[in-house]
Structure prediction request, 728 residues.
Amino acid sequence: MTKWRDYFLITYMSIGLNILFISTSNAQSYTEVSKSIGIDHYYGNGSSGGGVSFFDFDKDGWDDITLATQKSNQIFFYKNNNGSFEKLNNLISNTCESKQLLWIDYDNDADMDLYVTCFKDINRLYQNQGDLEFIDVTEVSGLSLVSLKSIGASWGDINNDGWLDLYITNKVTNAEENINNLFMNNKDGSFSEISILSNSTDPGKKPFCISFIDINNDLFPDIYIAQDKKAVNTMLMNLGDTTFSDISVSSHSDLVMDGMSVTVGDYDNDGDLDIYVTNIPEGNKLLRNNGDETFTEIAEIAGVSYYGYGWGANFLDYNNDGFDDLYVSGQEIGKDGIPSLLYTNNGKGGFDVLESGMQKDTVMSISNAVGDINNDGYPDIVVNNFDIYPSMLWKNTGGNNNWIKIQLRGVDSNRDGIGSFISVYSGPLVSTRYTQSATGFLAQNTANHMIGVGENTLIDSVIISWPSGNKDILKKLPSNKPYRIVEGSTHLPPRIYQSSELTICEGDSIVVETGYYSDYEWNQGGKSRSITVREEGEYFVKATNEYGAQAISDTVHISVKPLPKIQLDIVKSSNYPGYSSVKANVMAGTKPYHYLWSVSGKDTNYIDGIENGKHYLTVKDSNGCLLTKEFVVDYVTGLKIFNKEGVTIHPNPFLDEFIVRLQESLLEKTMNVQVFNLNGKMVMTDKYELKGRPSISVLMKDKPQGIYFVKIFIGPDLYTFRVVKSDD
Prediction:
């Protein structure tokens, strides 16, 4: 089966009663490794910094990193190649002052799309066409084209129809004029704004970040918003009919503070979701969920008030002991400031500060996200710093505790499984995770949930509660393994799921799988949960559950499409001396075709001016089937090209000038000289009256080193040469 990566990370921290307790009992720590594994990024300047995503955007099983940048700079995309990172250029073109970066599958087509909030610019939605090819669909999808001071955003399925909706916070100068926006997904690639109709505008405030959170476990996502400048934090309860009610006061979540992040997790393992909000030195806040749609603020009691300038925060089980710890980013610079801190959960409702190596982080840290660099099951942290301070990547040194990774894929619910609860039972430990698109301050964690189980080597059970109301229960799972759980995968009759579309290209394969059962029998052969299909045909499976009940799945038809076939015609160029032109004739496959030449970005079947050497052409048809053909151009074999007797050039190579020598019969004529560079651009032209002179000097002192093509016209005759300007 195709590899995948997973886990959902959250993080806690602790300072209590104005006293900082440092725990050094555990040798496990973090090491800063950004430069050594390929991350080289500076955010620069901007209003309140920028966000970060630690998310597997190409779905190859390794968490990638996406970093926001200041205005006029492109967003940074880093692909994770087995634990080291490669910067990808030109995925999109966006030089706004970027804030929130969210990878989501808003159109449920199995690839990750990208949403970007921009400060004082238009927020953008980019649809993935496959293979990380993106188009800007902001306008055609019906999202706003108004330039706003947007900060945070989050995607959630507010009506549980299986399609993700979008909530955006804005922060205009005059707070009285400020409203937020809610866009409902129309299930056809478009959105409708329902901010006023849904009672979710939250007017007249100064919001930073927003998270969808299910405060009462009814599977309808509520909204919590951190407000800056004492504007009073907001809790909007989802009433289940696409409308919301402001319960900030009645829920006791109406904190008056300079709120920054909204970090959600179950730090006390009681099965409901708590909230951590960062603040200025007055102290961060921890809202413990009382289980009755009310909260109690206990940050100082729990030891996580911080009392510095806090920004991003994340819950995560850094040591996999089964209790969520907390990481907080701070902006104070230098050894006398309060650094970013990692708080370790003591399992008794409180936290201690851990001597983790992160005390060295005394720069302006703004946003942080959690992922797994090397798939070792221990959470790592990426931090987007501010101004001149480079972004940091903190690698977990690992430990001896066990873990489980869970990746969700919705079927009746949205494909990302956002809004799902995961409950893991292992010995005395009961851990709960909630799937979100956004968390903390402008952050997105890995889409794969990583849950520590301590010394337990066998997980008793895992229960997935999906937004659709479906429930999957898996039992007796070995630890230290990843599991991909598809909605309905423990139900009878079994369903068949595939890793991609049901149409594949000749020579490719597709992984077809079913749910978790005791025994499997596929009609085309195979007795495991998944099979790899390369042949066209009908496929179904008979499954037997733990009680001996059997059922046959639905049948899927796999189609195999032919690859394009390419025939190339290579001839000498009539426009560029010494070059060739190539025309591609494509047969088979399905029109229209797209062309990608190794020597040009033009999408055309004809290209002119190709020099000698090995080249490549990739043709992709409308089914996405592609073929790459290698070809060699070897038209020119010497320095003198298409030449006639009577004219020579020397020296070749030359330094500042070359000499044209002519035979006696040409000396009374006029000579025109044209010089072209490798791009076919004329860089010099001149006319010479020979008047009996047997040689003419052509000066090229002001031209750069390189290869040039020379056309010499004498009467009706053309002489063509290739020359090289050298530096020695």
About this structure: DSSP finds one helix and 62 strands in the chain. Residues 1-25, 636-643 have pLDDT under 50 and may be disordered. Residues 299-302 form the longest helix (4 residues). The first strand starts at residue 22 and ends at 23.
